[in-house]
Amino acid sequence: MWSRVRNCSGLRRPHVMRQEEAVEVLKQVGAFQTGHFVFSSGLHSSIYVEKFRILERPLYAERLCRELAERFSNEGVSCVAGPTMGGIIVAYEVARHLPGARAIFAERDGDGREFRRGFAISPGERVLVVEDVITTGGSARQVIDAVERHGGVVVGVGALVDRSGGAVSFPFRFEPIVRLSLEAYDPSQCPLCKSGVPLEHPGSSPVPHTGASPKVREAVMS
Ligand SMILES: [Zn+2]
User: Fold this and answer.
1) Which CATH class is domain 18-201?
2) Distance 16 CA to ligand 1 centre (A)
3) Considering the entire predicted model, what is its pTM?
4) Rounded CA gap, 82 and 76, in Å?
5) What is the pLDDT of residues 43-58, one digit of tens each?
6) 90 alpha carbon – ligand 1 mean position (Å)
7) Angle at 147 between CA 144 and CA 152, to 5 degrees
8) What are the residue ranges spanned by the domains of the chain?
9) What is the pLDDT of residues 74-102, one digit of tens each?
10) How far away, in angstroms, is 18 Cα from ligand 1 center?
């Protein structure tokens, strides 16, 4: 289908980022990490996709997010919404490629998510929900709920990576750039737990540092 898409100069669209190429980018930047991880969903896995290895590099984040924007360019999207933290960057970067669209984010609020910071959605507004990495789809569903509570119309869900192997679906058009099938276990079924491998909390854990004591570091930060 993309071979028919032409830009305004009438030339064939120069490039489409395919799955293999996106996976290669993820590998190059070190986004795939191995160990014994527990996700925010509670599931365990031996592989963690650290989205911030992509999101810290605007060159790559821009390419992936532009691809998402182009897939939804005919949907009349005027607002792109994502969950904190990574979804803030994804929403902003996708919106940048959808003329006139705003980028907003939903923060944790009890068991769900809510828009704060004065973010508003007009009744009937067409909203694209985006996420960085989909594991269970829980965060994206919380954003969808928040959009619908505010009267918005969800036109679809876009993600950089769906690691669920197709287990996650939404009652909307769902467009992940990369589809992976990476095992994720309920803790009671986790072979790494059975083997006694130490559990890591990826993502928000502080990076170990050497040298300065916590007190010195705190002073430097403040
Ligand atoms: Zn485990």
Assistant:
1) alpha beta
2) 37
3) 0.83
4) 17
5) 999 999 999 999 999 9
6) 29
7) 125
8) 18-201
9) 999 999 999 999 999 999 999 999 999 99
10) 32
